[in-house]
Amino acid sequence: MESIFKKIADMNIDNIANKLFYLAQISNVDVPNKVITLLDIASEIKKYDSYESFISKSPDEIKDPEFLVNMYDMLRWWDYIVQGIEKFKYMAKFLQTVRVGAENSELELLQDSLKTLFPTVIFSQPHRADEFETRFEEFARKYAKKYLQIHQEHNNKIRSLQPQIDDLIHKITIMEELSCIDILKPYCTVPDIQNVRIAIIKDFSLCDYSPSEDDILKHFVCPKCKFSLADFYNTMQFDELNSSIEPAFQKCMRALVSNLSTKIIDSEENAIDALVKAVSVSDVDAIKNIFSGKFLEKVKELLDNGR
Known about the structure:
mainly alpha; 16 helices; 73% helix; elongated
């Protein structure tokens, strides 16, 4: 028992405690009370300047041979974790940071189980640290492989959607311009239209970087676009977003044509006629081309002045 006492006395208990509390913090859990109690007892044992002093003055419950052996075994494994603190810190941050999304149910289940197991291993079963690391590495490799696959599929999807994305941005731009005209404001103003534009830019932009597995394992996401796995699935919502804007755009166009139909713009009759035809067939490219700066300014002048 004396050798166990000396081994405990030689350990840096404060360092072990600080590192365990740090791992708890980045894992969003509390250090269990039994762990705190054990660390406090170890700190008390270190205060005895000799084994003889410990035997003669310490409470009976902490100098019980079985208790000391079991406590030293826990401290030894915690010290092992502390010595490898960087890899355990990495695992904790990885598990807390990555967002796999409900669409990846297998990965989500693995992540949840590892997040739950992590504090159990660290605080109650530190002898399973190597086993946990092996399971984590398996999860991380699967995650990186899936991320790279979805990242590529996302870019392919964006490329195929690009004409529709451009059309949607043009519609938003046209409505924003026309909503500045008082008579069209009730028909062309769309609530949160700026947020829609921001969402389009954020969720439907092409990433021109091809990340490697090492990139994903280091940064958890593509270092360029920084999309999580869950974010990539927003591309599946484009049709819904586009459909939500289309009725508002058609309403705006009908109001524009209705208000222009009784007006005359000098030498612009052809443009008016082309605009009416373009709106009737929802030809966004034609509408966009008609809305040159000069023509739009004349429309604004005409409708604002009520001529």
